[in-house]
Design brief:
Layout: H1 2-20, H2 31-48, H3 51-64, H4 72-92, H5 98-102, H6 114-118, H7 120-135, H8 140-158, H9 160-188, H10 195-250, H11 254-264, H12 273-285
């Protein structure tokens, strides 16, 4: 929603200022300039991007139009899920959760946390870590390093769409100049024409430069930054799970582990201690 609002503001501000100075909108409609700029930008993107990158960009653009990638409810759901797992481990041992890890969708614990199950990477991050604990005697500091490596690897992968779109943004001003130069080349063929005709041709050519710069700084560049922020939110969410797991390994107290995890939640999304405690109590009564 905010992305759409931002797009409308950019368009409204640019065209509003232009029209306020009695500009003619029809002069900005130059289909051939657009074909050169956007066609070259798309072609360059395809040249630079393997198929998996193109698919990642598509998925990232879809996520971008959500109001928020993670909400307060998502964090609460993850924290309550962690508490249920930790209480079960403390009561029945690590072996008791093996069936839950093998089929989370059928698990009595996981199936009540639909939003978490839909987050495939977070689900794999949690279940793989718990599986490791069931089959090894890994130390908490070693597990911490392992989880850090995984989070960083995922973050770098999640940044691929942002970097790809940023490359397109960087190319757009140059492609706008290419379109403008080609327009000037065509204008030179009409050098004997009246000044009014030459002025119209030069103006049409300059639309290419205008379009490339506007698309770079008004649209495509901000989109790349938005995708970067989405990747950062993924990293923050995984960091909450990491904090809970490592604390539980060091101090096998569900209450302490969940509190450590709660403190890692970003400030504006962080639930209060009492709010989380009440939800944990409710989940244990079920």
């Amino acid at each position: 929603m905010f992305v759409i609002i931002g797009i409308l503001i950019v368009i409204g501000a640019v065209l509003g200022g232009y029209l306020n100075e009695h500009g003619n909108i029809s002069l900005l409609i130059q289909p051939n300039e657009y074909i050169i700029i956007f066609g070259a930008a798309l072609g360059g993107f395809i040249i630079a991007s393997p198929l998996k990158v193109i698919k990642a960009v598509q998925a990232g653009l879809i996520r971008m139009f959500k109001s928020r990638v993670y909400t307060r409810k998502d964090y609460l759901d993850a924290l309550v899920l962690l508490s249920e797992i930790f209480y079960k481990i403390r009561k029945e041992g690590l072996v008791s959760i093996e069936t839950d890890l093998d089929a989370p969708e059928k698990s009595a614990i996981f199936k009540n946390h639909e939003s978490f199950i839909k987050n495939h990477h977070a689900l794999a991050f949690l279940t793989d870590t718990l599986r490791t604990l069931t089959i090894t005697d890994i130390e908490s500091h070693e597990m911490g390093d392992l989880l850090d490596y995984e989070i960083e690897a995922h973050h770098e992968e999640a940044l691929i769409p942002s970097k790809s779109i940023a490359n397109v943004a960087d190319a757009l001003p140059g492609l706008g100049i290419v379109a403008a130069v080609l327009g000037v080349v065509l204008t030179m063929k009409k050098i004997d024409s009246p000044p009014a005709v030459l002025g119209e041709c030069i103006g049409a050519a300059l639309v290419g430069t205008f379009t490339g710069v506007l698309m770079c700084y008004g649209f495509v560049g901000p989109i790349a930054k938005n995708l970067e922020n989405i990747a950062s939110e993924d990293k923050e969410f995984l960091a909450v799970i990491r904090a809970g797991l490592l604390t539980f390994m060091s101090t096998p107290s569900p209450q302490v582990a969940i509190e450590f995890a709660r403190r890692v939640v970003p400030g504006e999304l962080r639930p209060t201690f009492l709010e989380l405690e009440e939800l944990v109590k409710q989940s244990r009564k079920k």
